[in-house]
Amino acid sequence: MKIHHIRNATMIIETNNHVILVDPMLGPKGSMAPFSFIRHKARKNPIVSMPVNSTELLTKVTHCLITHLHMDHLDKAGEQFLIENNIPVIGSVKDEKELLKKGLNVVDVIEYWKQKEFLDGTIEGIPSRHGYGYVAKPMGNVMGFYIKLKNEPSVYLSSDTIYTDDVNKVLMEYKPDISVVASGSAQLDLFKPLLMTIDEILKFTKNAPGQVIANHLEAVNHCPTTRTQLREIYAQEGLTNKTFVPEDGEVMVF
What does 6-43 look like in DSSP terms, one character per residue? Predict the structure, then answer.
């Protein structure tokens, strides 16, 4: 298995038989409004361009997984790519109507804690809570995915979430080989953080039985945590050998 980190939460999971695009934010730098104007510098999003190797990778995509409908996970350019190429889309049953309304080729929807056949393996929806306290309610539903494909490492895409009992259950009971954690410490101008604090990122990483990929970094303006900061913290905690903090366009081989 190869996992290509594209930008933010956008990644491509490449196996021998399938090439799965996750959460496509594909628009050019500065194509969306800022997500924060006061707490963080008001820069238009995305704050970085697509990596140069992404165009060729996208031509290989056979399927797409969408964890939720926020624009930093599915933007207009992402929608256009999926529609123009008639890419089969899989998402949450809670997002089905909106995905169809956008004109996407929705071939299946997933429910929480229900395992379904997926390609040559299985997929299961995992609840995610997008923020601490009240802010999680207006942020809406988010779904993580636990994926097992034939002769491949198991993958847990936790998506935009804080550390919850559901997250802990997957790490401790499902024991994924690869776990992905959104690590940018996103926060709007009001309310508590939308993603795990550093302490909870460390808890996630320590409890994960296999390798951990940290994403959602340095791509949107309301995420202050940098790759350098996170790598330094991982090094201090002796976690460097089990973690990846990939650059945009980097490929990880498992």
Answer: EETTEEEEE-SS-EEEES---PPTT-B--S-SSSS---
Q: What is the pLDDT of residues 133-191, one digit of tens each?
A: 988 898 899 999 999 999 999 999 999 999 999 999 999 999 999 999 999 988 878 87
Sign, CA torsion 103/144/22/118: negative
Q: Say whether 222 sits in a helix, a strand or coil.
A: coil
E strands, the chain, are 2-7, 10-14, 19-22, 63-66, 88-92, 105-110, 115-118, 121-128, 142-149, 155-157, 178-182, 211-215, 243-244, 251-253
Number of domains in the chain: 1
Is pTM, for the whole model, over 0.85? yes
* Adjacent-strand bridge partners of 64: 21, 89
Q: Is beta strand 178-182 parallel, antiparallel or unpaired with respect to 121-128?
A: unpaired
CATH of the domain at 216: 3.60.15.10
Structure tokens that stand for 98 in this block: 């909106």
What is the edge-to-edge ordering of all strands in the sheet holding 2-7? 105-110, 88-92, 63-66, 19-22, 10-14, 2-7, 251-253
Note the pLDDT of residue 39.
82
Query: 214 is in which domain, residue-wise?
Result: 2-247
Return the closest-CA partner of residue 213 out of 5, 39, 68.
5
d(CA 178, CA 156): 6
Residues 6+ apart with CB under 8 A from 55: none
Task: Say how far apart CA 239 and CA 234 lie, in whole Å.
Answer: 5
